[in-house]
Amino acid sequence: MARTAGSHSDITGPRVREAALSLFAQHGYAAVSMRQIAKEVGVQAGALYNYTPDKQSLLFDLLKGHMDDLLSALADEPRQDTPHDRLEAFTRFHIRFHLERPQAVFISYMELRNLTPENFTEIEDLRRRYEGVLETILCDGRDSGVFHVADTKITTLAIIAMLTGVNTWYRSGGRLSLPEVEAIYWDMVRKTVT
Questions:
Q1: Cα of 182 vs its chain's centroid, Å
Q2: Which of 10, 64, 81, 161 sits between 20 and 30 A of 19, alpha carbons compared?
Q3: Cβ atoms of 163 and 185 closer than 8 Å
Q4: Based on the structure, what is the number of domains in the chain?
C-alpha cells in the first residue's frame, strides 16, 4: 500500500499522537477506534501501525509523555531554598504547567483505568515520583517546624487534587488572570500547611 501523499514519519507520527490525544479526551479511549484516528490524521488505518503497535501503546505513550514532560519541566525550575519558597514555587508551577495541557491532564486522570497492568504500574511510578517532590517539601517544612501537617501523604494528594482542579474551570480571558489564580491558590495551599 502506498504512503499517503505528504506523509512523513517526523510529521505523521506527532499528528497521530495529537489526533489520539484529542479523540481520547473528547470521546474516551474505549470509544475511539484506530480507524477514527487514521481518518483524523488523513492516512489509511493500516498506516497507523507504522507509528504505533496498537491503541494501548498509543495511550501509554501519551500518558508517559505527559509525565516525562512534567518531571523534566519541574527539574528545570529554579531552585528555592526554604520549604515555604519551594512549596510556593511548586504550587505555581503545577497550575501553569497543567493549564497549558488540558487534554493531556484529562486523559492522564480519566484513562488510567484503560492501561494494562504493566503500563499502569509504570505510569503510577512516574506519578509517585512527582508526588514525592511535593511530599519531600512538606516533610522538610514539618521537620523544620514551618509546616504543621498531620499526614504528609494525604496532604500531598489533597494539594495536587486541588491544584489540578483549576483545569476544570479556569479559562483565559475570564474574571481572573493566571497570576491572580496562582496567588489565590498559593494562599489556600499555604493556609493548609501552616
A1: 18
A2: 161
A3: yes
A4: 2
Is position 3 within any domain?
Answer: no
168: nearest Cα among 155, 152, 154, 181: 181
Most distant CA atoms of the chain, gap in Å: 67
42-89 pLDDT per residue, tens: 998 888 888 889 999 999 999 999 999 999 999 999 999 999 999 999
Which 3 state secondary structure label does DSSP give 80? coil
Write the CATH number for 118: 1.10.357.10
- Predicted structure pTM score: 0.88
Compute how many other C-beta atoms are within 10 angstroms of the C-beta atom of residue 91.
Answer: 23
Whether residues 153 and 84 fall in one domain: yes
d(CA 159, CA 142): 15
**Quick check: helix, strand or coil at residue 175?**
coil
Cβ pair 27, 103 in contact under 8 A: no
Residue 146: give the domain boundaries. Answer: 57-193
- Give the cell for residue 167: 483545569
Task: List CB contacts of 20: < 8 A, sequence separation 6 or more.
Answer: 32, 37, 55, 58, 59, 62
Whether 2 maps to a domain, the answer reads: no
